[in-house]
């Protein structure tokens, strides 16, 4: 078996594992207990929860991996990540403060769609099939809005105290940014090292195809959950 086929097989297995734990992406028991019982402002604990949630939020991270995959300059990475941050911060705060409810399965399916979109975009799919390239910054901002609603939905699953809510949300949001920074730092280091080798471009098609496969599998799991729950 050629090495490219072996890599493709490994990636498909990995994305299947990611999808297999799709329902586990959320909040662990200890955190659930804290959120349920907490009263008043608790900036540091919410900051920690936000950071942990982002580091374990592989759907968010898969999308960001796709976003930065072909970005070579630190300035470009900063700009695109900033668009994503503005989007998800806005809807995270708006969703919880205004008590806007969104079906968790549907919003997670849209988040999974963002992974498919970015893999398709990196493969040049829009140019090939539609002859037109969408504005990638606007797309990242829009999908960032949906990712923020996803985070808001996770928090709204708990009937925690409204006392100190804004302070706690700010802490959670900053924690999300810290977790996002740490995760992306690791990803950027790996990608920058990989870029030194010819295999980077050779396997870029396989990698972005794997992103699309992961996104489609996650969409399937989330839509299945939605139709089972209604």
UniProtKB/TrEMBL annotation:
Keywords: Membrane, Signal, Transmembrane, Transmembrane helix. The keyword Transmembrane helix applies. The keyword Nucleotide-binding does not apply. It comes from the Bacteria. The chain crosses the membrane at residues 55-72, 77-94, 100-117, 138-155, 170-194, 206-228. Residues 1-24 form the signal peptide. It holds the Pfam family HupE_UreJ_2. This is Membrane protein. It comes from Fulvitalea axinellae.
């Amino acid at each position: 078996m050629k090495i490219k086929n072996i890599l493709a097989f490994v990636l498909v297995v990995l994305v299947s594992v990611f999808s297999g734990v799709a329902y586990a992406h959320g909040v662990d028991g200890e955190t659930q207990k804290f959120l349920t019982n907490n009263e008043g402002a608790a900036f540091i604990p919410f900051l920690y929860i936000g950071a942990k949630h982002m580091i374990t939020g592989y759907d968010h991270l898969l999308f960001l991996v796709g976003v930065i995959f072909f970005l070579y300059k630190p300035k470009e990475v900063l700009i695109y990540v900033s668009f994503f941050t503005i989007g998800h911060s806005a809807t995270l705060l708006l969703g919880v403060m205004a008590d806007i409810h969104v079906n968790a399965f549907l919003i997670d399916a849209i988040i999974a769609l963002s992974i498919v979109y970015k893999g398709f975009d990196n493969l040049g799919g829009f140019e090939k099939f539609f002859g037109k390239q969408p504005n990638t910054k606007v797309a990242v901002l829009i999908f960032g809005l949906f990712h923020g609603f996803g985070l808001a939905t996770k928090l709204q699953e708990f009937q925690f105290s409204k006392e100190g809510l804004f302070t706690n949300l700010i802490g959670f949001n900053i924690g999300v940014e810290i977790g996002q920074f740490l995760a992306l730092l690791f990803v950027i280091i790996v990608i920058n090292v990989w870029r030194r080798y010819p295999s980077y471009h050779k396997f870029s098609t396989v990698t972005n195809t794997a992103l699309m496969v992961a996104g489609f599998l996650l969409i399937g799991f989330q839509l299945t959950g939605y139709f089972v729950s209604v």
